[in-house]
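Subject: for your reference before the review

Hello V.,

The reviewers asked for a structural picture of the protein, and I figured it would be easier to keep everything in one thread rather than splitting it across files. Below is the amino acid sequence we used in the manuscript, unchanged from the supplementary table.
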Amino acid sequence: MKPSNPRLDLFITLLGLAGIVLFLSLYDSAFPSAAIDLTLSRDEIARRAEAYIQAQGYDVEGYEFALTFDESGWASVYLQRTVGIPETNRLIRDEGVPIYYWRARWFKPLQKEEFSASLAPDGNVVAFSHSVPEDRPGAALEQEQARVLAEGYATGDRGWSLAGWELTSASSQDRPGGRVDHHFEWKQRDWSVSDSEMRIAVDVQGDRVGGYGYWLKTPESFERQFLEQRNRAWFVNDLSYTLGFYGFAFAAVAALVAAAWRSTLNWRAGLKPALLVGVVSFLASLNYLPLAKAGYGTTQDYALFWIQRVFNIAVSAGYDAALVYLLWLGGQSLARWVWPRQDKILPRSDDRRGTLARSAWRGLMLGGISGGYVILFYLIATRLFGGWTPLQVSSASTYATPLPFLGPIETGLTPAMTEELVFRLVGIALVLLWTRRRWLALLIPGALWAFAHLGYVRDPFYLRGIELTIEAVLLTGLFFLRFDLITTITAHFAYNASLGALPLLRSGEPYFVVSGLIVVAAMLSPLLPGVAGRLRRLRHTQAPIPHPRVDVAAQSDLPRLLQLPVEGVDWPALFGDPNTWIMCLRAGDAIIGVAAGCTKSDDTAEITVVYVDPAWRRRYWGSALIDDLAGRMCERGVQTIEVTAGSKDQTCVGFWASQGWKPTTAIFSKSFALKEGQRKRSFFRRIRESLTSGEEIRL
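And here is what came back from the structure prediction:
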């Protein structure tokens, strides 16, 4: 990695802050989630929903309860398409169009009868239903009698003035138990948003109101057109995902196998990020578990329902962790072939925490730049080119969970980890390895990543692909090449998580605000170790550590070389041998590493010593020593350089294999000097083998 450039970092910071300001200032006009007003807590919504059901004369004591937060998808997309996001948000806030709502459900396992109520974020009831068995006895009112009952409910209970509504349908149905159910539906006369209609409906079950609904009805022609676009988009989406995700993941696994075969794999490298993703995924899924009751079918065994859910949670979390672990190891192994002297996940340095903090800060600023770019792209596409970019709410259901902050954190972390590992680390490295063309390495993985996001329908259907390809090439890809993967992972996480956190932060309900602040704290958490280390260094002033350098050892270095913990080396003899090279790694006056080698013939040499102080390892200084030593040997006409590594010393074998050295000669050995205990074990082993083979045993 290139050294840090303060001016470049300052420029990135200014761009990031400008992007954040632009994103926040135009948030209301670009994101439909701006209309979500979470002024009431989930507990208050649950209390109001139960009070409403009880006010209708129903008792839900002893029933299972579930509360979810949902979006009316068709209505939201239709309004965005026809009147734009700013007007959509105004209709939701000012006129109460029911796009977002809480849904409460009461049920008993294996029982048909259940209740539900839907409330707008301000607590206004927009729907309720009472499901009863078809054969339950009840009254058989005439349709006109039932209509009077329904109109009385609409005007008295819900406060509608039906003078502004037109009856569009009235139907009756005889039930097996002798009960007659009725359905009445009205549309608002002065509603003038294109071809949509505001509707209310009331169901009468026998002689009681058993259902109510208030919703925006979208034209069937729009839904058909939308589905046609989605089918085309999903075809390209699936094709791009298959070629990109599975193709690059296969390359990562192949690189992992090759590294394991060459003994260059550090199996512990990906454990921490994999564990982080697995734990967050598991906790977030547990957090959503209470919402699962909303989808329970009352004909299913209740115990099996929960067993299946918990099993799925464990499997899903294990899959996420295993995927990140394999991609991390395989991607790192593949990246070493392209960048042999760099760690493209996080550069190695003497201040690991400080490096993490700098990369995380750049990532946060890149996330801000991405947010500003999304806003600008939306404005240009919609206002100048007539495009259509409906934006969905990120994880709306998380607002109904006990811990709302876990949803944004999980939807930010898991995609950020997997997608950046696959499309940035593996994808860019693989294309660079094949083509040696940086622009292709940016374009091919970037386009595959972008068009694998066409599940978010746009008009034209490929608009999202264009939007993200530009971002992948000019922002994320360039930042990865210039810096590291932690930068792009942080940016991806920050952008995704912020979409779920903003409605929480804008809420007037303290619990939601605190949850949003926890998401923000999660974004800033990678900075904390570096900031803490910086503060400690400021309190305890220390002399700066000189940057290490490699040069030829001198006779005056002999006392310090003798103090190094390198066994079996006769340093005075090496200094006296004219066919020996000795290179030192120095940090100021201290020798922190050494490499030595000697010629075996006119064109062959051997490296006999490589040592780096443990505090300076994993920063490629051993590689620097070897490169310098090998270069000096080659200047003397050496064509082949050899090194001997014990087959059981996996660290040594892995180190040389990671430098690109290949094994050429195998030396076999066997020890015949057995101790008495070993001789007895060998004797009993011969008895066991003879018994299993049927061979005669001679004592």
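For the response letter, the relevant points are probably these. Confidence is low (pLDDT under 50) at residues 686-699. The first helix runs from residue 6 to 25.

Happy to draft the paragraph if you're swamped.

O.
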